[in-house]
Design brief:
single chain, 322 residues, mainly alpha, transport, transmembrane, transmembrane helix
Length: 322
């Protein structure tokens, strides 16, 4: 992962030939996701991956070891200057506002407990910033600068809130907040940011093993996701919350971002970057959190599935308009 981010540290607008190759890489990013999901589905169909607790072991390994390793090894070598860009501010505000909109809709129309509502709110606003966000930022925007700050924003700020809302085992607000702040992915994000901000160099014998472990994160989550599709079919239940979260993710969040960016006076490339990143599909990490805490799994799974298929047309529409 470090090599991937290092490849495009200060990318510029691609030439026509680069754009054609780049769009192929964007499609490759989607192809990778669908292929690994299909592998998980096939393994579950053949009973290589068992149901229930057996499948969830993949999520737990990713949650406690692989994803924290990926986050730390990526953020620790990132440039912190981009963290203070107005584009990141737009994404942050759009994320919070979209979550609040879902909470309001849920309170009015859906009979959900707090954990399921949090699952839907996260699904409507938590975007895939790495395995889809990186190639799209690089080749559609011509600049990968905002991907790592967007990732840290999610892990260090949004993840504690989401995990606190999903963790039904914690009794009381204080314990829920503590559960969110001490989650491995959150600790890894803070630690990586501290290392990056201090301009420290992580020794290779420390960083290299973390990169190897981090490489397992996305395949583990995607295969578990694919395995979950052998059970209840998409949109069989929780149809209203799922479709609401999907619409908010692909239409509502970019619309909020457009309003915020307009109020801040953004235009041109910064406006375009904010809208494209806000239109990214729901991240598989949302499903991983839900599966780990056994809260709102169906809503997260179905929203990830739908937005992953529908995000590309949504982003093409944004590109056509802006």
């Amino acid at each position: 992962m470090r090599q991937i981010f290092a490849t495009f540290p200060n990318a510029t607008t691609p030439s026509p030939g680069d754009t054609l190759t780049g769009m192929l890489d964007v499609l490759t990013g989607f192809a990778i996701i669908f292929t690994v999901i299909a592998a998980g589905w096939w393994l579950a169909h053949k009973r290589v991956i068992g149901p229930g607790e057996q499948r969830l072991q993949l999520n737990r390994i990713a949650f406690h070891v692989a994803t924290p390793s990926l986050i730390f090894s990526s953020v620790a070598v990132a440039d912190t200057d981009a963290f203070f860009s107005p584009v990141i501010l737009v994404i942050a505000v759009a994320t919070v506002v979209t979550m609040l909109i879902y909470w309001a809709i849920s309170a009015l129309f859906f009979r959900q407990d707090a954990a399921e509502t949090m699952a839907g709110a996260a699904s409507s606003s938590y975007y895939n910033s790495v395995n889809i966000g990186l190639p799209i930022a690089t080749y559609v925007l011509g600049d990968a600068t905002f991907v790592v700050p967007a990732l840290v924003l999610q892990m260090a700020v949004l993840s504690p809130i989401v995990i606190a809302g999903l963790d039904r085992s914690s009794s009381g607000v204080a314990k829920s907040v503590l559960s969110g702040l001490t989650a491995p992915v959150v600790v890894a994000a803070f630690a990586g940011f501290a290392v990056s901000a201090a301009s420290w160099t992580v020794p290779e014998p420390v960083l290299a093993p973390l990169e190897i472990l981090g490489g397992a994160s996305i395949p583990l989550i995607l295969m578990s996701f694919g395995a979950s599709l052998t059970g209840e079919k998409v949109l069989t239940s929780h149809r209203g919350p799922t479709l609401t979260a999907t619409a908010l993710k692909l239409v509502g969040m970019p619309a909020v971002a457009w309003v915020v960016a307009t109020l801040l006076g953004l235009d041109g490339q910064e406006m375009y970057a904010a809208l494209i990143l806000c239109a990214l599909p729901t991240a598989q990490n949302v499903y991983n959190y839900a599966a780990t805490y056994r809260s709102g799994e169906v809503i997260c799974r179905d929203t990830v599935f739908l937005t992953t298929f529908l995000a590309l047309p949504a982003m093409l529409l944004i590109a056509g308009v802006f």
